[in-house]
Amino acid sequence: VRALAERAGIDVLHYDLRLDLRTVAEKQLSGAASLSFLLRPGARQISFDLAGMEVDSVLLDGVHTEFRLAAGVLSLLSPKPADPPAHEMTVFYHGSPSEGLIFGRDGAGDPTAFADNWPNRARWWFPANDHPSDKATVRFDVRVPGGWSLVANGARSQPEDRSPEADGSRRWEWETRVPIPVYTMVIGLARFSHLDLGRAACGRAPNAPGGCVRVSVWALRGDSAYGAERFRRAVDMVDFFAKLIGPFSFEKLTHVESSTRFGGMENSSAIFYPRVPWSERRMSEGVIAHETAHQWFGDAVTPARWGHLWLSEGFASYFGPLYFRDRDGEEAFRTRMAAARARVLDSDVSARPVIDEDATELYSLLNSNNYQKGAWILHMLRGVVGDSAFFRGVREYYREHRDGNVLTEDFQRAMEKTSDMSLEWFFRQWLYQPGFPQLRAEWWTEDVNAGGSGGADLSGRADPAGDADLDGKANPAGSNRELVIAVSQTQPPGWPTFRLPMEVAVRPEGGGAPVRRPILLSTRADTVRLRVERPVADISLDPGEWVLGRFEISHRGETP
Ligand SMILES: [Zn+2]
Questions:
Q1: Cα–Cα distances in Å, from 110 out to 148, 192, 249, 275, 447?
Q2: How close is the Cα of 300 to the center of ligand 1, in Å?
């Protein structure tokens, strides 16, 4: 399967999907898909992804055309049209999708159908340029049995009180105003209970009718009371992220009880959750924050290539916890980050770089590199550049790329701009190289240069004040004591030697608060010397928990 291909030279602008799902009980779909697209000079032929469906006929610019459907590719056999570059293809098709659109039953035995496209399964139910780099707007016009309702991306584009068709069925129309990734173009059909949760991000939702995001829950029957309780902070989450990051880009936000195979699927403006944890009343609020954060990162700002998936999953995995930090406190945040750290330290995939352009099995990208390590990389970057530059950089990146596609260098550029720092070393070691630091540190104190001043030259450095200046304090007069910390980076040789600006906490003997001192590690064996005024009781590395790694520390002379 040429899963990673993008169709060279084809840029879909809009999908108009007119589908008939009155046959949902028979797991049958029929319809017409019209794709408006641009043909660029690089295009060899007109072809799209389509698998498992039967094609009845194809029109190109209104004219019947010959086609071939083989190996998941629909190719038009007509000669490539000359300019202008804008074209429309309409495909009439039918079939029983075995993937992408999942037919099932609700708890009462009534039929349901839920799209579940990630990463490239849209092709199993509509013709598409099934790649995240080609975002487009979409309109769904779907005929469904009476008593069923249909959720999809975007806003309803029909009068709410339209009367049923002659056979009792109903047409549901939804349409997006902004381009979204194909992997989030979804419909969900069931006998839903609808629950309005309220309005969010007022003034920060340029594409929402009325300027506010309507947040709602669509639950399967019997499950809406739990939905109301579980999603009670769903409105607040949208408010939080819109304020922190930038405008909510979509028309509304519906949380849908569905049958996705994932723990949650961030479909643009219609988040799908799996049925089992919902119906068993054991959903985590963390998944709601994660999927909501995806509306900004992943959906509005979309990685252009699968290898840069951390720009979606790492961001959702960090901004979710930032919500709980703001609302529930630092401890709620630290608990989540500690769990993420443990995952990274235990994972075999940590031996590969986060940016993995060679992955041929896209599901294998759903790993701790893209989720937990991605979250930690953002956390470390925040530590390196500081809160102000970090959040300004995030906002700048979001503003510049909203409704578009990105690669990691776009994010790096924004962060370098707002921090006024060169961050090449940071992005290289954490994203393009494998692993994490494994530090073994040993510390002791020494009396140095009795009776003299500027004793720091014993450390072998030219600048006599260098070490004591690290925390901006003057070399305390009369102190002849140095804390020496020898740190080895013991990670495997195939992993980089990490450059690590970090802190140590020094706890003096006889009580008193630990003093935090900045240090910089940059080789496999660094020796750090810090002038201290009082005898040292003990020290700890990274007291603020800003660095991802495994740290061991011991006092010389003690059993490690
Ligand atoms: Zn996610």
A1: 10, 11, 34, 14, 80
A2: 14
Mean per-residue pLDDT, 311-324: 98
- CA 27 – ligand 1 centroid, Å: 29
**From the CA of 291, how far away is ligand 1's center (Å)?**
6
Tell me how crowded residue 547 is: count the other CB atoms within 10 A of its CB: 23
Between the CA of 375 and the centroid of ligand 1 the distance, in Å, is 11
- CA 37, CA 24: separation in Å to the nearest integer? 30
Whole-number Å distance, alpha carbon 316 to ligand 1 midpoint, is: 6
**Could you read off the pLDDT of 26-67 as tens digits, one per residue?**
999 999 999 999 998 878 889 999 999 999 999 999 999 999
- The Å distance, Cα 290 to ligand 1 centre, comes to 6
Q: Average pLDDT of 360-373?
A: 95
Report yes or no on whether pTM surpasses 0.90: yes
Q: Ligand 1 center to residue 98 CA distance, Å?
A: 24
Amino acid at 466: G
CA of 69 to the centre of ligand 1 (A): 33
Give, for 159, the enclosing helix (H) or strand (E): none
Instruction: Give me ligand 1 centre to Cα 261, in Å.
Output: 13
**Distance (Å) from CA 371 to ligand 1 centroid:** 8
Q: Which residues contact 489 (CB under 8 A, 6 or more apart)?
A: 437, 438, 439, 497, 498, 521, 523, 524, 525
How crowded is residue 373: how many other Cβ atoms within 10 Å of its Cβ? 29
Torsions phi, psi for 523 (to 5 deg)? -130, 175
Rg (CA), the chain: 28
Residue 364 pLDDT class (50, 70, 90 cuts): very high
Nearest CA among 37, 71, 74 for reference residue 57? 74
Q: What is the mean pLDDT of the chain?
A: 93
Whole-number Å distance, alpha carbon 540 to ligand 1 midpoint, is 34
65 contacts 77 by C-beta, under 8 angstroms: yes
The token duo for 560 is: 């490690």
